[in-house]
From TrEMBL:
Pathway of action: Lipid metabolism; Phospholipid metabolism; phosphatidylcholine biosynthesis
Gene Ontology BP annotations: methylation; phosphatidylcholine biosynthetic process
InterPro entries: PEMT/MFAP, Phopholipid_MeTrfase
Enzyme class: transferase
Record-given protein name: phosphatidyl-N-methylethanolamine N-methyltransferase
Keyword Endoplasmic reticulum: yes
UniProt keyword annotation of Chaperone present: no
Keywords, in A-Z order: Endoplasmic reticulum, Lipid biosynthesis, Lipid metabolism, Membrane, Methyltransferase, Phospholipid biosynthesis, Phospholipid metabolism, S-adenosyl-L-methionine, Transferase, Transmembrane, Transmembrane helix
Localization terms from the record: Endoplasmic reticulum membrane
A Gene Ontology term for the protein's cellular component: endoplasmic reticulum membrane
């Protein structure tokens, strides 16, 4: 959808501004993430458990892995840019809407990881699976 927007600017015209369109697309992405998480949870509930993973150590290991995932909530993709007074919500898809930033994001978590959102999502689902 973002690439289609970059080519056509149809969402920006439809919503009246690139920022409004970007926020609406972001809201749809967040809602779809909730649906995906719900489906994942339901699928995990219906699966048989391995005896070795049906224990306190597996539960708390999964919880510990998930506790380390605020990195995923804080992060934006590294090829996006930050502007001094810009709302961070715009960054993941902002460049597709013509909302270009001035400087590359180099602060935490990008100072230690190249793709913190991917690592965070993977850790969340791994932790949830263990739990």
């Amino acid at each position: 959808v973002a690439r289609w927007e970059h080519k056509t600017r149809a969402l920006s015209r439809g919503f009246g501004s690139p920022r409004t369109a970007c926020y609406c697309l972001g809201a749809v992405i967040l809602l779809l993430n909730c649906v995906r998480s719900h489906c994942f949870t339901e699928a995990m509930k219906s699966q048989p458990k391995l005896e070795g993973l049906d224990s306190h150590w597996a539960y708390y290991s999964g919880l510990a892995i998930m506790a380390g995932c605020p990195v995923a909530l804080h992060a934006d993709p590294p090829h996006h840019f930050a502007e001094p007074n810009e709302k961070p919500f715009v960054h993941p898809t902002g460049d597709y809407f013509g909302i270009l930033m001035e400087a590359k994001v180099t602060c935490f978590p990008f100072s230690i990881l190249d793709n913190p959102m991917y690592w965070g999502s993977t850790a969340v689902y791994l932790g949830w699976s263990l739990m």
